[in-house]
Amino acid sequence: MEPPISQKGGMHATSSRWDAGFSLSRRRYAGAMLAAALLLFSCIAAAAEAALDPRLREQVVQVPLQVELEPQVLTATTYQPPGEGPFPLVVLSHGSPGDGAVRAMMGRYRRLTQIEEFVKRGFAVIVPMRRGYGATGGRWAERYGGCAAPDYYRAGLEAQKDLLATIAFAAKLPFVNPHRVVLVGQSAGGIASIAAASASLEGVIGVVNFSGGRGGRTRTQASRVRPRT
Q1: Which domain holds residue 23?
Q2: Cβ(151)–Cβ(189) below 8 Å
Q3: What is the chain's percent helix, strand, coil content, to nearest 5?
Q4: What is the rounded distance in angstroms from the CA atom of residue 125 to the CA atom of residue 94?
Q5: How far apart (Å, rounded) are the C-alpha atoms in residues 121 and 116?
Q6: pTM of the entire structure?
Q7: CA 67, CA 147: separation in Å to the nearest integer?
Q8: 43 and 61 share a domain?
Q9: Residue 208: CB partners within 8 Å, gap ≥ 6?
Q10: What percent of the chain has pLDDT over 90?
Q11: Residue 52 pLDDT > 80, yes or no?
Q12: Are 108 and 71 in contact (CB under 8 A)?
């Protein structure tokens, strides 16, 4: 026997409230899981950051930078071969994740396999974290506006400031030969390296650009990449 109309309405209201409560619980659970995952990632990153590699004579340094009369500091990492030097220098520049949250969690850029190859060949290496990235943090300096009219030139000039400050700092290190500097970068770091090289700074004798560029849309266009046959 069907319940009265009033009871039917009450049943629908109860069901709607239960659905809403269940949906809210799922969102809260998902939010809690995301927060836990981020915390775990941060703990793992912090543990990795704590261990410096003695084989590569790894050190964390602070690079002074002045932009529009405002003093700032970049966190960088140095590596060097055995011996006193002075050694030729590689300035290694990182790329730029599309997600701002990922940029903030980059820590230090430690591509140790690649860095070790430079060190084996007699190069000292310095790896700066540019403004707005990882261990340096702060406001992201390389903003280039919206996708409709991006200003990548401006972003390159901002990155150039960070690399020029890094070169000036490294030139004073006792184990660095300031007359033999090579700029190496990948993706946005490749563009940054080219921008820094365009300043024709004394001592910079080469630049290597690995797939340099900005504005990639991997979330929507990655499927368009096809292997060569």
Answers
A1: 1-51
A2: no
A3: 45, 20, 35
A4: 13
A5: 9
A6: 0.70
A7: 26
A8: no
A9: 182, 183, 184, 185, 193
A10: 39
A11: yes
A12: no
